[in-house]
Amino acid sequence: xxxxxxxxxxxxxxxxxxxxxxxxxxxxxxxxxxxxxxxxxxxxxxxxxxxxxxxxxxxxxxxxxxxxxxxxxxxxxxxxxxxxxxxxxxxxxxxxxxxxxxxxxxxxxxxxxxxxxxxxxxxxxxxxxxxxxxxxxxxxxxxxxxxxxxxxxxxxxxxxxxxxxxxxxxxxxxxxxxxxxxxxxxxxxxxxxxxxxxxxxxxxxxxxxxxxxxxxxxxxxxxxxxxxxxxxxxxxxxxxxxxxxxxxxxxxxxxxxxxxxxxxxxxxxxxxxxxxxxxxxxxxxxxxxxxxxxxxxxxxxxxxxxxxxxxxxxxxxxxxxxxxxxxxxxxxxxxxxxxxxxxxxxxxxxxxxxxxxxxxxxxxxxxxxxxx
Length: 372
Ligand code: G6P
Known about the structure:
Structural class: alpha/beta
Distance between the termini: 30 Å
Keywords: Aminotransferase, Cytoplasm, Glutamine amidotransferase, Repeat, Transferase
Oligomer: single chain
Protein name: Glutamine--fructose-6-phosphate aminotransferase [isomerizing]
Function: Catalyzes the first step in hexosamine metabolism, converting fructose-6P into glucosamine-6P using glutamine as a nitrogen source.
Bound molecules: 6-O-phosphono-alpha-D-glucopyranose
Order of helices and strands: HHEEHEHEHEHEHEHHHEHEEHEEH
Low-confidence stretches: none
Subcellular location: Cytoplasm
Organism: Microbacterium kribbense
């Protein structure tokens, strides 16, 4: 096993280090003349032109990737999107029509809850598209179309590189559909393509420059009993994913919230010393969202929270209110999701390691849940 880990202390550490390639390999062969053209979706233009609604179904981390993808699919392809947990979808007599495109997301392609939901949707006349990391798995075989993520085999139970590859595939799908539906200009398409292509180097930059500090922070926090995560826009599902990762491998209570929801309840949880991660949107791209999140930070700081901020390089507005600042490179509004999650993966791994836990094989969990 040591050889398989290629010198890394765990599969998870190896797989986090492979996040840049996971994104790059998922993009490869899918860009032509500064526009997204996914060869596997050739011949489906009519389907995409007639799509009235997209329903994303998945479980666990894949469902959070779906929630991130919703922002891009709606913004760029201008199709209404709902994201639903596969096991909830199937048992509530959902409304489906021929204009519904069901997009399933699964790393393994074998998750029984997701598979059953895909079959159910197909039997009721919806078209199904699978985003999957495992060639020839059951879910892609049961779907009308498939867009593979090329993250490579993922061994650690907690998903990391597959998650960034899933978001990448969803952004590619959104841009492919946007091109077919002509819902964004060629210039915007090219701008987003350039942003996407720049992501692998930016993730590599975070791994190189923030890994040590983030791991150190995790070690200092080894005895923490609860950690909260706040985010807005695509930062919201990233906050949920940051919390899930911590629960899965460090067994610490963790919860993610939409930053705007703070005043509607979660702020009651803030007491002196409570660690809170806050994912801050770029001030260049949306000063409105940025300023709202900065004021959330002020509110929790005033109540004694220990604030760990994930913010764009150069964002000085967060400095007076943050106990720790983890920096991510500059990126467009959708793309910061792919960057902000990286320190959260490193943090969860560092904290589990500091607690002496097996990060690859957390208790009670299986990599692929093949029972309903
Ligand atoms: C299990 C794993 C999770 C994973 C989920 C969905 O619960 O422990 O890490 O996110 O299944 O798996 P899938 O293979 O469908 O992406």
